[in-house]
Batch of 3 targets.
Target 1
Amino acid sequence: MTEPVRRSVRVRCDITHAFEVFTSRVDVWWPRGHRRFENSQMTLEALAGGRFVERSDQGEENKLGEVLACEPPHRISYTWYPGATDQPTHVDVRFVAEGEETIVHIVHSEGTSGLGETWPQRSERFQRGWDLILPAYATLASQRLTPRN
């Protein structure tokens, strides 16, 4: 197994809010440019066996992954299907309270996907992706929640 992608971000909110925004508000913070469909809604079901999907406004679904473990508000772990393969990678997200803030740690690995030789190239893309996606998450999590429409 090769070295996983590791990223962390500090958010200015309590751990419960940080977890809630990551899971229940993924459609709000996930950048539109990092989606398969132009007009879509993303859902991350925060329970073991839950689905992580992107649904187009036409009803077409793109399976992004499946939740393997969910321990609110401390951890969520899910498979992640990278765009060019049907072999899932593994994402483990941990939330650690630190005073009035929360540190969110991401470990993205090849898991049991068998990507082997292609993992180094894919991991570079995942690194760039997390470097874009995590700041978008941190910005929303650090703000007060607004009511959903």
Target 2
Amino acid sequence: MSLDVYLTRMQPCTVFDQNITHNLGGMAREAGIYEHCWRPEEIGIKVAAQLIGPLQTAIAAMEADPERFEKFNAPNGWGLYEHFVPWLKKYLAACEEFPDAEIHVSR
């Protein structure tokens, strides 16, 4: 199972999409962004601009203390810190490039 995230614009057209394993849910919770990534609609997040600050904060925390977050690595190797941080950075870059894009997730 995985989480798919999509950013779409008015036309609508997808301007960004990527997925990541649900095994990273615990790490996302530790970073304070589980709801932002997995359940944005539940916390009122509708457009990419609303994710920029939380993603920046989470990435900074994760890079400042990798050991804290590596404790949440999936034992089976499907869901690792070393994959999640770059995934978050790509998501952040897309949010910065397309701040008006609507967020859609599929769980």
Target 3
Amino acid sequence: MRSSFLKSIVLIAVLALSAASTRSLSHGAGSPAEPVVKLQGLDGHFYDVSEMRGSVILVSFGATWCAPCSGELAALEDLKREYIRKPVKFLWISIDNPAQASDGKLKAYAKDHKLTIPVLRDPTKATYLQFSDRIRLPLNVFFSRDGRFDEPVTFGMSSEPEVYKARVRQRLDKLLGSSRSSAE
């Protein structure tokens, strides 16, 4: 039992170091490396942001135990309906590990929250750690239509859903506008 505990700690340390090196590459000298968001969804499909070029992508990280994440998910579903005719895609990534939420529990959570947004898993938090050194949820990450990570990341959910949606709308509209003007 102690051996498996030590192996888990070593694995977490390796993943953290890997994510830290990815962060330093993306902000270091030379050509910056783009963060990699490629995870499997509960629907069995793999989602790779680099293959979604042409659309603005909003990636939200959350967890079943995160109370503000529930409110955020409802707001994201509203925004998804609002942007249905625009090149915008939404992804929700759970950072729950399997002990916190099995696939079955996560599917039930998605059903209870009436999610139509693809639900992905990042149980080791390796993808999350590319964007933040510490866990603060919800965390939103945006990618432009040309597939580039658009800084800064945003944390939190306003207690007023309309304030939150206005903030996200502003960011999405900026990315849609700048992508259109750069493509023209």
